[in-house]
Write a structure and sequence with these properties.
Strand order of the largest sheet: 3-2-1-4-5-6-7
Largest sheet: 7 strands, parallel
CATH superfamily: NAD(P)-binding Rossmann-like Domain
Radius of gyration: 18 Å
Number of domains: 1
Shape: globular
Number of strands: 7
Structural class: alpha/beta
CATH architecture: 3-Layer(aba) Sandwich
């Protein structure tokens, strides 16, 4: 007798995706919508990349779910508050929910210059260091604080943040982002402990090398891809859907005891020398 095929995981409620227009955020938004979640997406796109947002939005709505998208700087506290104010009014107008089931932090924007260079234009400045950490690390704390203050995180919620092996290893031009990722992992641990009494978990996901728009901006990314292909026991790069599937699994109620971790989603890439 053949084994029965497991039913796809199901979820209810709303998910907030910070960085929803491409890469891990877009894939996760689609996966959560397919499982039953309505989506609030925050992204920062110019006219040349807005078509990606339209594709993500249409994909979510084709699954019968809501897709409310906000094109704004997620690292700006005033703009964050405007998003949450508007969201609260929209929820109230439809007599809807008041809290999120899933939150994903997948913001990728920062300096990719080396620390040392012959002049200011060829090296990372202090301002760029601060900006990179604000966007890719500290904004996780800022959004979590605002959601808790507004009672927009329900008991049993799952918070996820995207880190990388660059948090502890050195890649060309990745110094500012590496520092931000290390800070992000520290924030995840602290938030995990402080939110545990509320039944909310916080974990970081460390994806393998993935061919996303963010990766393509890193110097010598083609070399990174080649090394990852050599190392990965599955013989392929990690894909955004691999991360989305992991989040879909970890968002289930049965994952409530997984908290404060850095979870590798890379098919075994990181354990191969």
């Amino acid at each position: 007798m053949l084994p029965q095929t497991a039913s796809p995981p199901k979820l209810d409620g709303w998910a907030l995706i910070l960085g929803a227009s491409s890469g891990f955020g877009a894939a996760t938004a689609a996966a959560l919508a397919g499982a039953g979640c309505d989506i609030v997406g925050v992204h920062l796109d110019r006219r040349t990349t807005l078509h990606r947002v339209d594709e993500v939005t249409q994909g979510i709505r084709s699954l019968g779910r809501e897709a409310w998208m906000y094109n704004t700087n997620a690292a700006d506290e005033a703009k964050r508050d405007r998003v949450l104010d508007d969201l609260a009014l929209r929820w109230k107008s439809v007599d809807g929910p008041t809290s999120f089931r899933v939150v994903m932090h997948s913001l990728a924007f920062g300096s990719l210059l080396p620390f040392l260079g012959p002049n200011d234009d060829t090296r990372t400045s202090l301002r760029q260091l601060e900006m990179t950490s604000l966007v890719m690390a500290h904004s996780l704390v800022s959004w979590t604080q605002a959601l808790v203050d507004r009672k927009m995180l329900r008991s049993g919620a799952r918070v996820f943040a995207m880190t990388s092996t660059g948090a502890w290893s050195v890649w060309k031009g990745y110094g500012a982002v590496s520092a931000a990722k290390a800070a992000l992992e520290a924030h995840v641990r602290q938030l995990a402990v402080e939110l545990a009494p509320s039944g909310i978990t916080v974990n970081a996901l460390c994806a393998g090398v993935t061919d996303t728009p963010a990766l393509q901006k890193i110097p010598e990314h083609e070399t990174m891809k080649a090394i990852a292909l050599r190392k990965n026991p599955h013989g392929r790069l990690t894909q955004p859907n691999d991360v989305a599937d992991a989040i879909l699994t970890l968002a289930q109620p049965q994952s409530h005891w997984i908290n404060g971790n850095v979870i590798h989603v890379d098919g075994g890439e990181s354990i191969v020398g």
